[in-house]
Amino acid sequence: MHILLVASAFNSLTQRVHAELRDRGHTVAVELVPLPEGSWLETVRRHAPDLLLAPMLTTAIPREVWSAYPCFVVHPGPVGDRGPSSLDWAVQEGVEQWGVTVLQAEEEMDAGAVWASVACVVPPVAKSDLYRNEIADAALAAVLLAVERFASRSHTPLPQTTARTRPYLDQRVRRIDWDADSTQTVVRKLRAADSRPGVLDMLCGAEWYLHGGHPEDGLRGTPGQLLATRAGAICRATRDGAVWIPELRRRRTPGQPPEVKLPAVSALGDRLPPLPELPAPLEAAWPTWTDIRYREEGSVGFLSFSFPGGAMSTAQCRRLLDAYREACARPTSTLVLGGGRDFFSNGIHLNVIEAAEDPAAESWTNINALDDLVEAVLRTTDRLVIAALAGNAAAGGVMLALAADEVWCRTGCVLNPHYRLMGLYGSEYWTYTLPRRVGAATAGRLLSEALPLSAVSAHRIGLVDRVIACEPRDFAAETGRLAARSATLPGTRSRIAVKKEQLELQESREPLAAFRERELARMHRTFFDPEAPYHALRRAFVRKEKPARTPAHLVLAPPARTAAEPHPAALRVTGTDRDGISSRPDD
Questions:
Q1: In this model, does residue 405 exceed pLDDT 70?
Q2: What's the pLDDT at 372?
Q3: Is the per-residue pLDDT at 277 higher than 80?
Q4: Where is this region: Disordered (predicted)?
Q5: Same-domain status, 252 and 357
Q6: Spatial distance between the Cα atoms of 344 and 337, rounded to a whole number of angstroms
Q7: Do 389 and 522 lie in a common domain?
Q8: Residue 566 lies in a domain
Q9: Residue 529, by phi and psi: left (phi above 0), alpha (psi -120 to 50) or beta?
């Protein structure tokens, strides 16, 4: 079918729906709202879709459209749930089961007949993590079921019989009472507001939106008091414990551009009182928050990291490089990089760059720090390195993964291996790693099309070595099991020996330094050219400015496969077979 996606933003869920529908042979077009005044019907007519689908839409579809075309809306709540803050309420109230519903659009929001509904669990994580994982899995399953039912022309959607409409979850309800709220309550409120809108609060004499929350059991203080810092985060006392808050966003001053989220310590700057920096040991055994952690199981080391939004600042890149070197000093034969939940990496930290006194200089420092990390992975020849992607990756984050010997992805991953939408040529040794994996022609296509890839499509073209079908909460354990088995295979030792020979051969032909030098020469020209599009694109991205029109590359995307290729839905993705995918008919 020809399917038109209408969305308020080309966000993670819209990207996943886009990629997975294309995997199944549909042509997919995208239109971002708001559309020009009075142009809804005209725009839809121009696309002439078989179906209009709204994966993430914060405005109503006009009557003139839904009365003329079949229109489905994805609602992040179970049947009968209505309102604009569905997921926020679920997280703040601590529900354990939730769901996603695909509805027929009609006059009343979220009130249409039900085409599909899929239940999911709600683990104790932040809203944005939940949205990109359990909710996205349920939404994708519901969308595919609804599309299949619509295509059959024989399914009748069921009307909703009961409903509960809840209001927008505003700051009056989100407000934290530091004297009365328990740590658990504070964490829920913080997680329910992540990544937007944040929890508005007074801190150090100014109003800030607090983003992200992790419980701390060991530290104590007067409720509301700042106790310590760690890796750019601040620790604040509750009545029965404390919470770590990684990011802050200054409340916008009327007439001024929107403020950006920053690591809490950086955001507060000179306002921050003297506090102890309490780094957690890399192998911290107690359940305290840290963004980088290491553990071992037999001959396998696991270096996991989790940075808000997947962005990696200069400081984060350097700390991760230090941790990587420490992990490589351990007597293991296999090192798993990543493997937690949510984002793997999205490359350099555009928010920190935008807030810097000299964004060009910070861009340059940041890209060099990330290149240093990628180079360390590329030059690791004494063990097998596996990049384990539980969640999405983009730009330099994809290239960081490609530096490893193998790339393993959870089925729900979305990969964006391109840079041009930010006006960049790219670095992180991509001119070496990307063509080496997929060939020069495919590498060029990926970079020029700038479209998201599903994990299955990435596996099909050789970008990914293994696709693991599991729930988000099971990915770490499944990765550990598979890595342990891989470490015992007879061929692993010989693969490690060959790595050293291959790197020496590469260095004799064309040193890795040559790839880096050429890439960085292009990046330097862009960073230090004040007229380069990168600066305006970066500014618009971090300040969430909506484009004046839908980007041209999204207007129409053909199917991701050719007629000769197998339909991805006919393949069973597994985490147990040698190749990561087997040709068993789907149930």
A1: yes
A2: 98
A3: yes
A4: 561-587
A5: no
A6: 9
A7: yes
A8: no
A9: beta
Q: Which residues of 489-504 are buried (b: 16+ CB within 10 A; e: fewer)?
A: eeebeeebeebeeeee
Q: Which of 38-42, 248-252, 435-439 has the lowest mean pLDDT?
A: 38-42
Q: Alpha-carbon distance 192 to 87, whole Å?
A: 8
Question: Nearest Cα to 302, choosing from 503, 478, 496?
Answer: 478
Q: What does the alpha-carbon distance between residue 144 and residue 182 come to, in Å, rounded to a whole number?
A: 41
Give helix 359-378 / helix 314-328 axis angle, nearest 10°.
20
Same domain, 118 and 191: no
Beta strands, E only, 122-211? 164-165, 199-203, 206-211
Would you say 416 and 476 are in contact if contact means Cβ atoms under 8 Å apart?
no
**586 lies in a domain?**
no
Instruction: Give the span between the Cα atoms of 135 and 144, in whole angstroms.
Output: 14
- Does 296 lie in the same domain as 250? no
Residue with tokens 């983009």: 394
* CB atoms closer than 10 angstroms to residue 156: 8
Task: Output the pTM of the full model.
Answer: 0.93
Q: Is residue 178 part of a domain?
A: yes
Q: Write the CATH number for 453.
A: 3.90.226.10
Q: Is residue 512 domain-shared with residue 418, that is, in the same domain?
A: yes
Residue 248 near residue 194, CB atoms below 8 Å? no
In a 10 Å sphere around its CB, with 0-12 CB exposed, 13-18 middle and 19+ buried, how is residue 326 labelled?
Answer: middle
Please check whether residues 392 and 428 belong to one and the same domain: yes
Q: Is 280 inside any structural domain?
A: no
Question: Alpha carbon of 382 to those of 390, 448, 471, 497: distances in Å?
Answer: 25, 36, 32, 8
**Which one is predicted more confidently, 254 or 114?**
114
**The domain boundary residue, chosen from 125, 141, 165:** 165
Identify the domain containing residue 105 by its residue range: 2-165
Query: Hunting for tokens 């990684």 — which residue is that?
Result: 246
From CA 232, how far away is CA 212, in angstroms rounded? 13
Domain count, the chain: 3
Is the pLDDT at 574 greater than 60, yes or no? no
**What is the secondary structure of 388-430 as a DSSP string?**
EESS-EETHHHHHHHTSSEEEEETT-EEE---GGGT----TTH
Are 313 and 256 found together in one domain?
A: no
- SS3 of 72, please? strand
- The residues, ordered by sequence, that sit 6+ positions from 578 with a Cβ below 8 Å of its Cβ are none
- The length of the chain is 587
* CA angle, residues 194, 239, 166, in degrees to nearest 5: 40
Mean pLDDT of the chain: 93
CATH number at residue 132: 3.40.50.170
Q: Look up the CATH number of the domain holding residue 207.
A: 3.10.25.10
